[in-house]
Amino acid sequence: MFMKQMDNEFVRDSEGSWVAPLPFRVPRQPLPSNRQQALHRANMLDTSLNRNPVKREHFLTFMSKILDNNHAELAPPLHEHEECWYLPLFGVYHPKKPDQIRGVFDSSAKCNGVSLNSVLLTGPDLTNDLLGVLLRFRKEMVAVTADVQHMFHCFVVRKRPP
Q: What pTM did the predictor assign?
């Protein structure tokens, strides 16, 4: 179901960016308002960042990069009774990169038993088997790797259904 929807609706726009729909399950379950929960999580994040100026600076740098690279934009005001889901955000550090924070958008956060993940279709498992990767590295004379730093920000979510 997921792959069929992507085959039909994953397109390039006039600027060359990939545009994808949110792959909602059918029948579509309405999302409850999670505004209060998201505000609570945002306030907790703000308190945490105010207690740790270094972490705050790292987080602001992360958010600036997201906005500067056009991987996010300011949301327009909502119309009355318009459905909306707020993604809570938190930051984590990699043990080997203590000066760089990674922002995590928590799509598994639940409100009234519902999360964004629970109403979306699951895509295919694209994780490579480690043994297969190691065997393919031995197959040829040269191995190639790539940096996927911006991989998760490489497409635009369609604003409204067609």
A: 0.78
